């Protein structure tokens, strides 16, 4: 017995050491390759960007199966956010010319009439252009409304640096008009349907909503800083509406974020992890309203997302259920064979490094009922509570989580070819690189994860201390916070649930019914956001020893008001 325990402890320590040293080695070898890989794909001088205009980011030099010799607003903006962070933090002061090329190229693209419209009729939502700055006119999933938001975020970051360095004229005369077009577009169109970041689903997308929220929030502060006060309250109003709408993607019974509002899929999607890292604000603590990397919701979501890939990829078989695996866009994916992606697997590591950074800053971590399953992966006996940095539990958990994070980099390292080239995907069966070669976003994602591993952060955007409005407006689906109170006596171990006629009440599903709190027993309570101005039918149910008992007929019914909150008091029937 003692021998077994000792052996398994040694095994754990050796395993942890192997993960971390593999990650160390990968960071050392891949960093310069990834940086060069990004620069090679930027015109006019990048060695793999022939034909691209100055400042244009080529998604990949691949010209067939798939042809990615285009420039996407989303990819370009994420890539330049990385380069601007490196420039503004002083890590690489040589990038200024390239950054100026980028902002000039984007100013040109904004004005190119395209199938989504002109600059004033929706053209800013066009997802991609030819690399000579002409419109791409074939059929495509358009519009994609995350692009203008991400572009505004990147350029605002640069503009703030210029202001810090006394260059107000260039910011006000040259950059602000570009930024304002994007922010106005977001403020006016955020509640319209959009194709998601994978260009497949036309509905509302969590990633898009979240990056739009960030752009308007920091856009309002930035506009104020340069004296453009007339736009501030409009941006702030829509930012509040976006923050409210953002909450509706959370699936409380599944413990994860549903990535898109349309689509007939599980909703488990790298979209959500990418949201956490690209809206990370190191000053916002573990706030769940903005799904910060260390928030209980984002951690619960991370576990559900990662677990969705454990059994579907051959290369993940035989890996312990609490160890790192290769992950892809979403489990139902079939594009190019539906394989793991480098950028999604590194995003998991990045979220975890961001979380470790914040816990370290705050000097504690919280385990809540929402994040319990995530933490149980690292300590099966853990219970909810606050663990200060001085506690041994904190040390055990954070060390195991760092090893877990390093494991995702080690998985990518294992399937990175000897020359360090990063394609888009690698085979689910044997790890061979697949799909587009030299994907700019793969390189950029490696670099942002490596920076997070080193504890580097790049400033706040205003996510700290936000309050979610009590009722949402403007989302085409205003909601009302409805509190259900029901008086019901129960036996020990028996619980009361609610389900009903709308999605927020789990569409009459007894399996997914929402559990009520017995904090004020014998009154059981729950508050749920329901659609406004809507007739909603519902019933309470009891669950005891696996047995479900419904209330007697007929169904209960309420009509929700147009806004605000509402309380419904019932007695079990
Ligand atoms: C302000 O920044 C722009 C962009 O880099 C540059 O072209 C311009 O020379 C700068 N102006 C001053 C006064 O430094
Ligand atoms: C996307 O969905 C909206 C709303 O349902 C619809 O009006 C629009 O035509 C759709 N776009 C495409 C390209 O299917
Ligand atoms: C833990 O939760 C408490 C109460 O909600 C909160 O005040 C504190 O900031 C949280 N700490 C961390 C590290 O998340
Ligand atoms: C979208 O938001 C605008 C305000 O920006 C509002 O006038 C409009 O009614 C909203 N549309 C829907 C469908 O809620």
Automatic annotation (TrEMBL):
Gene Ontology CC annotation, any one: fungal-type vacuole
SMART domains: CBM_2 (SM01065)
Keywords in alphabetical order: Carbohydrate metabolism, Glycoprotein, Glycosidase, Hydrolase, Polysaccharide degradation, Signal
Reaction(s) catalysed (UniProt annotation): Hydrolysis of terminal (1->4)-linked alpha-D-glucose residues successively from non-reducing ends of the chains with release of beta-D-glucose
Molecular function GO labels: glucan 1,4-alpha-glucosidase activity; starch binding
Active-site residues, as the UniProt record annotates them: 196, 199
Similarity comment: family membership: Belongs to the glycosyl hydrolase 15 family.
Protein's name in the database: Glucoamylase
Species name: Trametes coccinea (strain BRFM310)
């Amino acid at each position: 017995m003692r021998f077994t325990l000792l052996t398994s402890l040694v095994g754990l320590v050796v395993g942890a050491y192997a993960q971390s040293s593999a990650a160390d080695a990968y960071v050392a070898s891949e960093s310069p390759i990834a940086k060069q890989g990004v620069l090679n794909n930027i015109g006019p001088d990048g060695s793999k960007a022939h034909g691209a205009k100055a400042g244009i980011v080529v998604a990949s030099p691949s010209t067939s199966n798939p042809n990615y010799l285009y420039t996407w607003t989303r990819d370009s903006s994420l890539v330049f956010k990385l380069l601007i962070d490196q420039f503004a933090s002083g890590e690489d002061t040589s990038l200024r010319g390239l950054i100026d090329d980028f902002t000039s190229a984007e100013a040109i693209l904004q004005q190119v009439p395209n199938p989504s419209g002109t600059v004033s009729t929706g053209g800013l939502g066009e997802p991609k252009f030819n690399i000579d700055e002409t419109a791409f006119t074939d059929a495509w999933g358009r519009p994609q409304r995350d692009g203008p938001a991400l572009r505004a975020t990147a350029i605002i970051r640069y503009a703030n640096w210029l202001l810090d360095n006394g260059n107000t004229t260039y910011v006000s005369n040259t950059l602000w008009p570009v930024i304002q077009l994007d922010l106005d577009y977001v403020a006016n169109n955020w509640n319209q349907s959009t194709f998601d970041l994978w260009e497949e689903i036309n509905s509302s997308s969590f990633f898009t909503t979240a990056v739009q929220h960030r752009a308007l929030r920091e856009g309002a502060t930035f506009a104020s800083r340069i004296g453009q006060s007339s736009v501030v309250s409009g941006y702030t109003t829509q930012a509040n509406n976006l923050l409210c709408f953002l909450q509706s993607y959370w699936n409380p019974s599944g413990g994860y974020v549903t990535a898109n509002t349309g689509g007939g899929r599980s909703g488990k999607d790298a979209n959500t992890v990418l949201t956490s890292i690209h809206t990370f604000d190191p000053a916002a603590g573990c706030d769940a309203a903005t799904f910060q990397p260390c928030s209980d919701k984002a951690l619960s979501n991370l576990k559900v997302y990662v677990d969705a890939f454990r059994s579907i990829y051959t290369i993940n078989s035989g890996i312990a259920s609490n160890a790192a695996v290769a992950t892809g866009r979403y489990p139902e994916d079939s594009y190019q064979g539906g394989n793991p992606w480098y950028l999604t697997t590194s995003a998991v590591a990045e979220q975890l490094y961001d979380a470790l950074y914040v816990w370290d800053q705050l000097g504690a971590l919280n385990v809540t009922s929402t994040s319990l399953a995530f933490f149980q992966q690292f300590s099966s006996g853990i219970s909810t509570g606050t663990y200060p940095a001085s506690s041994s539990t904190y040390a055990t958990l954070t060390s195991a989580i760092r090893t877990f994070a390093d494991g995702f980099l080690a998985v990518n390292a294992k399937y990175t070819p000897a020359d360090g080239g990063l394609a888009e995907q690698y085979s689910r069966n044997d790890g061979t690189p697949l799909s587009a070669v030299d994907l700019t976003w793969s390189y950029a994602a490696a670099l942002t994860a490596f920076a997070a591993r080193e504890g580097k952060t790049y400033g706040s955007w205003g996510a700290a201390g936000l309050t979610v409005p009590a009722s949402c407006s403007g989302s085409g689906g205003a909601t009302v916070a409805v509190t259900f109170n029901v008086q019901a006596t129960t036996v020990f171990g028996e619980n009361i649930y609610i389900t009903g006629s709308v999605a927020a009440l789990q569409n009459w599903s007894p399996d997914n019914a929402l559990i009520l709190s017995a904090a004020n027993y014998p009154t059981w309570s729950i508050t749920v956001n329901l659609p406004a101005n809507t007739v909603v039918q519902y019933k309470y149910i009891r669950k005891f020893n696996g047995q479900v008992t419904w209330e007697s007929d007929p169904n209960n019914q309420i009509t929700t008001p147009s806004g605000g909150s509402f309380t419904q008091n019932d007695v079990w029937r």
